[in-house]
Amino acid sequence: MAAQIKFRNVTLGYERHPAVHHLNGEVASGALLAVIGPNGAGKSTLFRGVAGILKPLSGAIDLGGLDQRDIAYLPQTADIDRSFPISVFDFVASGLWRSTGLFGGISGKAREKILAAIAAVGLNGFENRPIGTLSGGQMQRMLFARVLLQDARLIVLDEPFNAIDAKTSADLLALVGRWHAEGRTVLAALHDLDMVRANFPETLLLARGPVAWGSTAEALTPENLLVAMKMCEAFDDRAAACADVPSRAA
Ligand SMILES: Nc1ncnc2c1ncn2[C@@H]1O[C@H](COP(=O)(O)OP(=O)(O)OP(=O)(O)O)[C@@H](O)[C@H]1O
């Protein structure tokens, strides 16, 4: 299977401080990959890099010719400004911007698609609710509806099942399974190892750099998990930038 993503010695970080170091490797087109790691391991940073929100400090992320609009990115719910006065309908509708444009207006057909996506995640009747009134699980369903609408070839989900009930997890996991069956490439940052073992064939165990990457059974050994934890504990956030990260100072 051709590669959908190639990480070429990529280093990502903030203010010249690397958070993910020298990552090399490929994600095959159509892969269903879990990204696991302790808090602060760099999972969100890596996903921001793939989504094009964060430019690499060095190295490159090759997306096999994919346009940025072909990537659907589901951020952590903590990154969503819930006080922003927008309805569920309008939030989900933003998933269509790639076809309608920002000010393109919503046709009758587009409206149907938006309502179908909201229904598919079990949020019928919530269309006019301000997003700030949603529960954690409803919020997550809404984020999935937007991804559904984006119809993207590459889907990047940052902790999509955190702090939600078992029924919501199961419903949303079924959507992930559907995307995988449709041949889309799906990456998800997760914390629940049982869920990963049961549903994700491939895993990248990350601790600022890769600890293991391959079949889930081979990557998620107790030894590897311990190494990842120790690597994250030992990491000094205030350390200077890597020697081979060029300075951006003027
Ligand atoms: N916007 C930011 N500015 C500066 N440093 C950041 C920023 N976001 C993350 N970091 C730092 O980058 C490192 C990696 O964080 P990241 O959020 O990518 O880890 P994570 O694996 O997603 O963690 P978690 O499981 O807790 O969400 C951490 O040391 C974090 O403090």
UniProtKB/TrEMBL annotation:
PROSITE patterns: ABC_TRANSPORTER_1, ABC_TRANSPORTER_2. One of its GO terms (biological process) is zinc ion transport. Belongs to the ABC transporter superfamily. Involved in beta-(1-->2)glucan export. Transmembrane domains (TMD) form a pore in the inner membrane and the ATP-binding domain (NBD) is responsible for energy generation. It comes from Bradyrhizobium archetypum. Pfam families: ABC_tran. This is ABC transporter ATP-binding protein. It comes from the Bacteria. Gene3D superfamilies: P-loop containing nucleotide triphosphate hydrolases.
